[in-house]
Amino acid sequence: MFKIMLVCALAALVAANENADVVRLVSEVNPDGFRIESALSDGSAQEATGDVHGNIHGSFEWVSKEGEHIRVQYVADENGYQPQSDILPTPPPVPEAISRALQWIATHPSKDAH
Fold first, then answer.
1. What gap in Å lies between CA 8 and CA 15, rounded to an integer?
2. What is the pTM of this model?
3. Tell me, what's the pLDDT at 2?
């Protein structure tokens, strides 16, 4: 399973930019997990480590068409895929009135909730 994932990930990186050369490739599959790393000459790269329980920690990065360095770090475990990056959208802040209302509800439980 891990080898298939590695081959697919590397193929995707290479296919994304056919003019880039592979400058680093590490593939370790052990009984207790795996580690992969790859980097292309255009600045694209990925790395990931995983354990026997299916938990994966990794990152991938590239340089956008505008010249901005983009990096996404992630964890994939029993809680699902959890990416973190400055490029990901974030929810707007909770309005002050709603925040106060939620605080009031939390400190004044309903009398019917026995």
1. 10
2. 0.65
3. 46
